[in-house]
Queue: 2 jobs
Job 1
Amino acid sequence: MGLKLSISKYFLFTAITLAAFIPAKSYGGGFPVRPGRITLTPSATYFFANKAWDENSHKGSFANNGKFTSWSYALYSEVGLSRRFTLSVLAPYVMNTFATDLGTSKSSGFQDLEVGIRYYLANINYKYYFSLQGTAIVPMYTNTALGYNQKGAELRLAFAGSGHLFSKNSFFILENGVREYFGYESVFQDRYNATYGLTLDKKFHEQISLSVGGFYATSINKEFNVNPSASKNFAFNQVALSYGHSFAKSLSMFLTGGTFVTGRNTGAGSNLSASLIYRIDTK
């Protein structure tokens, strides 16, 4: 696998996962990052839901013509420390609005700061890669409309590989992460995602990919919350489609659309996302 192809694949997956899960933005990737490389990824995502699944997975409209919308902005950065290790930092900001015939409630602010270390366990012929990431989670707020306001930790395993389909370069990434928030009404989460993508041209300027993923959260607090950032007991599965274009070797843009297809105790929502990916080689 050439360096250019590896970079292209990694960027594509990063952009997809920026918008894959609104309540659980899963940033990461299965392909190695060159030592000394700094990746900066600002993104903006719009989420909308006017229906929800109840605790029995029956879907219906919110009461009183309710509508939940959210604009979220994030800056993700990853640094290649060595051939085996990378360091990542995620800082998200969100603006939530829930409007009904009875009134409107809003909340906005920074959410959880995430700092992670990824270790590349092994590879098979430099074509298939296994990695393990540990992430520390620290809230940057006190308003529980923005999140759980609890410290947490996550362990994530990824398997990535490359190949060909219809004479096009292709790749796949499989990820599963388990996360625990500590404290009162602690929350356990399982986040999983599978991505398959194709590079459409020989110069690696145009890319598309399909992502299928899910989210499971459990807690002693079983109450429904229209706000996915604050809900503690729910599940959903989602599909997302992404298109990417590279303007230059160091700059790419990605557009992603996703929708929830099944759920329990959560809003039935859809999202649109745009992101830029800029990389700097310091070595």
Job 2
Amino acid sequence: MSSSSSSPFRLGIIPLALFFLVFFAYPVLHFLWGSLAVDAGGTATLSLRNFTDALRSASVLRSLSTTLLLSVLTGVVSLVLGYLLAFQIVRRNAVIGKIIFVAAIASLFTSTIARALGWRVLLGFEGPINNALIAIGLISQPLQLINNFTAVAIGMIHIQVPVVMVGLIPVIEALPRDFERAAIGLGASRWKTFLTVHLPMTWMNAVPVGLIAIMATAAYFTTPVLLGGGRVNVIAIQIQQASQVLFDFGYAATLSVMLVAMISAVAIGILLLTHWRRNVRARGSSS
């Protein structure tokens, strides 16, 4: 690229850089400063007191572990379901694929609150699921399907599956159909072709899409509140209580920093594992 053509490109980077600094870097640095700044006699001093208090709190540690478990579970299940749906859209019956795609896109335009309230009706004691189980004789009393971790996980998976599915469609489309045709031509069934050809060649590109679901789930507040009934205390609820109930913004900033650090560690670990596996495959194919 010549210097004359690169000048507009460089000028175009400036607004993006300013946007990043104002709307991302500054809020993160502000929260980091707020978590370290402690009022000492009217003057703000830097201290790790908020972090030590949070790490000594059993409630905070339980909230972090619940958030991590919910995020990983949602990411894994959403990745599996989203992959199967995306594969159906790209590689199978066109009519069914279009119906699945339209239904998924429609759910993306539905309010998170509306979806959570819908699950409250479905999973309630007098809801359709319990009534159906009683009608066919599997249970004699309604099950506790709401106000627990399972209900929150179902609601979060319902939110993330369409997002993951849309992200995986280009990943699946990028794989040439010739590989599948060759496997089928050699006698492999469609299911065996999927497991031995398609999945091994696409899973490393699919993992980052599932990682998006993990990171997004960790920050959700509405769905755990509506479906958890106060019994699923994720870290987002702790942050809300610290900032809007206790008005301890320094402690809320500390919890936010801890959440970012935890999810960043998970993301880095998954990406490093994927990168290591890609390098192992590259060395194996070159030898």
